Amino acid sequence: MMFPSGITLPLAAVSLVAGLAGVAACDSSTGPDDGPPDLWIGQHKVVLRAGEEARLTALYLHSQLSGLDSVREATWRSSNTSVLRVRGDGSVTAAGAGVATVSLEYRGERDAVEVRVVDSAPAYHTEWASVTVGFETVCAITAGGETYCWGNDYYGAVADGARRAWTGVYSPVRVMGGQEFSSVALGLFHVCALTPAGTAYCWGDAGAMIGLAGHESINEPRRVDFDRPFNRLAAGRNYNCGLAAGGTAYCWGVVSFGELGDGVLGLHTRRHPYPVKTELRFVDIRPGGPRTCALTTAGRAYCWGAGSFGELGNGSRQTYAVPVAVSGDHIFEGITGRGHTCGRDTAGTVHCWGSNKWHQIGMDGDLYTTPVELPPEEQFQRVIAGTVTTCGLNAAGTAYCWGLDRYGNLGAGGPAPQRCDIDQFPCSDEPLEIAGGLRFQSLSLGLKTSCGVTVDHALYCWGSNLSGQLGAGLLVESSNTPVRVVDPW
Predict the structure, then answer these.
(1) Span 436-459, mean pLDDT?
(2) Close Cβ partners of 285 (under 8 Å, ≥ 6 residues apart)
(3) pLDDT-based confidence at 423, cuts 50/70/90?
(4) What pTM was computed for the model?
(5) What is the C-alpha separation between 405 and 430, in angstroms, rounded?
């Protein structure tokens, strides 16, 4: 079985199951819904080459009290054995080109997924315009305006109408409804998107996002109840922020540290877009977790929310529920980031502030409470900050990244040579070139996975693939080199 250089081969089935189950461990709200026992095959929309062998895994919810079991003895079937042969332990052999449905029966429950077999390397015809990476879900828009998602689908974030609680989607599927979106924003387990006319839609773990109480799985886009168009929309962990005409900022969702900027500290919910408590007008807004930063029409940066790791950039580590000015006299052309924040000023110099736990700011020190100028080797034409990594693009579109490399986040063929924090994960405080000689027009950096659109509109991803977020159809745990996202099917 052949894989591109830098890809980590799958572990045993139990390890893959643990990886899927680990999604829910992040938040007590993500446990399976109450109801009868359910069965899930762990991988959907897999792409294999003829002659390859792989193994599918499955989970069975037998009791709300004792939770999930990995399925060890069950009845597996293939709808077309000339395309795919399957054995009793979930092992499959790709026999010939085509698509086969793999079904599983276990204790009276049934699930089925699709597997595609190709003769050789998949053909690539799709031209991609943009990509956005969330926690374990990725969404992208084609040059023709179609929106596709893949990866974790626990709350229906893939939005094809078929919520798969414990199944990862391993290649792109079309978002239901046929709505054309100009941009997509991803939070922890929810997705929101903006139409060209400025109407916002949300799906996934989006109860609060569309004006409903509590958590609710929404499997297809639903309109946000708001009577003004947005000209910009972005997502934080469990909340969203948008800019209306004139630069007025609105935020809504579920927060605990003042991230909505509504003047309220502590756990609370805004079910509809609510104005940020300020007279300032903004041209950009960057919610993250648990802080929000925004750029005014005059180029000044303001932040609000938790400041424990210097996220607000105002010289303190306090928490604020209203916007506070970032220290210094910087006039920024733009800002970027979800955890730490970076801004490029009008002189072309990049400054960053916030957590540096994984060397994502690229210098010594655990955090910076005020903007610090990046070293000369990190002064790129464009800088993109994520949660645990930062990347720069030079004039030719060559990408360099630094920060945490635990999942192959840096895409440099790693692992990175340094070790960070008490867990001693691979990291780098120096820019490492992304492998493959690719030239990018844009990048999106997630906690575990990153993706980029090249100058010729191809789409590549690297990092973790435990929920299929590489979008390449591959049954691998991770890749520390970019792999190309396959065409939708």
Answers:
(1) 98
(2) 232, 234, 241, 242, 243, 249, 292, 293, 294, 295
(3) confident
(4) 0.91
(5) 12
